[in-house]
C-alpha cells in the first residue's frame, strides 16, 4: 500500500482502508487504540476462514482468488496438530502450512494463523493428537507440565513456518491466536500466559489475540492481559461488541468468527441460513466499525475420516454423540465445490464499499466432470482378511483395550471373545461403547450396538464366539468430553458377568494409505456390492474434473479414489454423496475402493457425477 491509499474508505461508520493487503517488507501492522493500523493508518480486516487441510492443494489458488473476489483482504486458517503429528515424533506433510501461507501471499492476502494447540473446527479431537489426550487426560489445555512439554516441542517444529512469513519480514502473517475459545472450556490463566510466552519465545512478533463467545465467563476465562480480545457470534453484533467493551474498553473491535452458516451431523437435517439474513448480520458488524472474519468463507471437506463429533443433550455438551458429516460445506458463501452461492454475491455487495478499488471478478470455475461414470467392481476382501493382513498384531487382554491402547486414531477395532458354555441364553451388553459396533455371533450377523443401545436384542447362549467390529465415528471436538477414549471403554457382559480374555486387532484408516499392499490382498469373493468388506473396482473417466461420488444402497463406511480417501459415507444422510476434487481423477481408468462396515444389502452401485 502506498501513501495515496491512506484516506480511502475512511469515515462512514468508522470505515477504514481495506485495500490490497500489503506491499512487502517495511509496512508495519499493529493493534492500535481503536483500530488496526498499517504504518499508523487505520485499516479494517475483512477476513475469511479457509482451512488449507480441507482443500486439495492444487485448488488453494482458486479458493484464495475467490476470497479476493468476494471483497476480503485476509485469510484465516487453523492448524490441526493431529494431522501433522499422528504419532509422537512422526511428522506428516509438515510444511503444508508454509506452502499455504505462500499461496496467500501470492494472492495478495494477509493471513491470520490459529495454531492451537486446540482448534475445535469440527475436527477430530479438536486437533489434539489422540496419543496426547490419552496420556494427559483432563490435564490437556492446562498448565500441566507434561502437556506443555508436548506443546512446546510441537510449536518448535511448527512455528518457524509462521515466523519466517510474518508481516515484519515481508510475509502475509499479521496475527496469531493464543489457544482457541478457551473461555468455553477452562479458566487456567497460568496456562494462557505460558502459551503467550511460548509463542513469543519462538519468534512470533505478529500481533497476538484471543477469541471467545461474548459472555462474561468466556471473556474472563479466555482473555489474556495485554493481548487483544475478539468475539465470536453469528448475529446481534451490537450486543456482542457491547459485551466485549465491558471487559475491554479499548482496542479494535473484531468478530473473529462470524458464523455465516453452520455444520451438519449425521442423521439430522442440513442446516441452512437465509443468505439475506446473513448479509444483514455482516452489514451490522461493519456498521459498528469492526473488522470481521467469515467463518467459514469456504468450508471444504473433512477428508480421510477426520471429521469430529459433538455431544448433545444439555448445556454441558455431555449427552448423545453427534458425529459430524464429511462435508464441511458449512452453508458458506463459497460452496464445497468452490462455486459462488447467493450468499457470496450478497456478501460481495456488502463488502465492496469497504474496498479502495473495484473488486476483481471471480476466477473462472475449475473444470467439472462432464460425463458420469459407474464403478465396475471386480472383487471383495472380507473385513477379517483386511484386519489380519493390514491391522495391528492381534493381542489378548483381560478387558477390552481402547483405540488409544492399540494406537488407532481413525478406523476400526475388531474385538473377539469366546463365551463359555454350556450356558443358557443371556443378554449380551457392551459397557462404555464408543461409538458403534457391528456384532457377529459364531460368524453370523447379530445386530448393531450403540452407546444408547448397548445390549443385543436377542439373548446369546454359550458356548459362542462373539466378534465386535467397533468404529470411532469421530472424537469429540468441543466441550468437557474432549479427549475421551474410543472403542470399548468398559467391558463385555454376558448377563451381569464380565467376559475376559478379549482378543483385539486395530484396523486404522492409515493402513490404506499405501495402495500396493491393499491391491495385493487376495479376494475372498467376487463382487458383492453392499456386503461388508473392501470392494475393489474401477471407474472410467473422460475429461476429469470436480465431481461427486454417489453411493446409493450402501450402509456406512469409507471410499477412496486412486488412493485418496474421500471420507466417510453413511446412508442415514443428510449427506448423500462425497465430493471428489478434480485433481484426484485422471483420464481413463481410476481405481475405486469402498470399505463397507455395516452391510446394507442393497444394490450398492457407485456413480461418479
In DSSP terms (H or I, runs of 4 or more residues), the helix count works out at 13
Which fold name corresponds to the CATH topology of the largest domain? TIM Barrel
Uncertain stretches: 1-26
The average pLDDT value, as a whole number, equals 94
Organism: Streptomyces typhae
EC number: 3.2.1.23
Catalytic activity: Hydrolysis of terminal non-reducing beta-D-galactose residues in beta-D-galactosides
Domain Beta-galactosidase galactose-binding: 535-590
Descriptive account of the structure:
This is Beta-galactosidase. Belongs to the glycosyl hydrolase 35 family. GO terms for molecular function: beta-galactosidase activity. The protein is α+β, with helices and mostly antiparallel strands. It folds into three domains: 45-260 and 269-354, Alpha-Beta Barrel (TIM Barrel), CATH 3.20.20.80; 373-378 and 524-608, Sandwich (Jelly Rolls), CATH 2.60.120; 383-509, Galactose-binding domain-like (Jelly Rolls, Sandwich). The chain is 20% helix and 29% strand. Strands 4-5-6-7-8-9-10-11 form an eight-stranded parallel beta barrel, surrounded by five helices. It has a six-stranded antiparallel β-sheet with strand order 16-24-17-21-19-20, with helices on one face. A hairpin with a 4-residue loop joins strand 1 and strand 2 (36-38). Helix 9 (275-287) packs parallel to helix 10. It is globular.
